[in-house]
Amino acid sequence: MKIKSILIGIFTFLFVAQSSMANADLVVVVNPHTTFNSLTRDELRRIFLGQTSNFPNGDHAIPFDVYGDYRNAFYQFILVRTPESVENYWANMIFTGKAEPPRQVQLDEAKQLVATSFGGISYIERSQVDSSVKVINIVIKK
């Protein structure tokens, strides 16, 4: 069942990426001063769903969520949720006082915010990557 969910997520991500974002290649980026090079998809999911406020190494994580089709693709592939289910999740978390959603930013803001915020993490187009941010690998465990 997990493999089926992963394959559905990958297919959905590729379909959305190809149709909605004109073949944009998204990467997850962190502040260049971080000491790790990868996160599991579950670790990334926990950060963006407010279930933890720290990276696995203990450093504080500051997620920045990007508006629009990029966010939708990220939600479907990384969070394995629809944008609507994420909105419902956050409505419940806010109502119960358990967590606040990540700050919503425009795509062109995401890189600058990550570069200038120790603990910053977001996703951008690969073509935007320069030395001001660090691309990390996302490990998908079976």
- Oligomeric organization of the protein chains: single chain
Q: What percent of residues are in strands?
A: 15-25%
- In total, the number of strands is 6
**What name is given to the CATH topology of the domain at 25-67 and 85-139?**
D-Maltodextrin-Binding Protein, domain 2
Give the CA-CA distance, first to last residue. 11 Å
Low-confidence stretches: 5-23
Question: How many helices?
Answer: 5
State the helical fraction. 40-55%
What is the CATH H-level superfamily of the domain at 25-67 and 85-139? Answer: Periplasmic binding protein-like II
Please list the strands of the largest sheet in the order they lie side by side.
2-6-1-5-3-4
Kindly describe this structure.
This protein starts with a helix and ends with a strand. It has a domain at 25-67 and 85-139: Periplasmic binding protein-like II (D-Maltodextrin-Binding Protein, domain 2). The protein is an alpha/beta fold. α1 (2-20) runs antiparallel to α3. Strands 2-6-1-5-3-4 form a six-stranded mixed beta sheet, with helices on both faces. The model is unreliable at 5-23 (pLDDT under 50). Helix content is 44%, strand content 20%. The protein contains five helices and six strands.
What attributes does this structure have?
142 residues; alpha/beta; D-Maltodextrin-Binding Protein, domain 2; six-stranded mixed beta sheet; 5 helices; 20% strand; globular
In short:
The protein has a domain at 25-67 and 85-139: D-Maltodextrin-Binding Protein, domain 2. The chain is built from five helices and six strands. It has helices at 2-20, 41-48, 69-79, 83-96, 107-116, and strands at 26-30, 38-40, 62-66, 103-105, 120-125, 134-139.
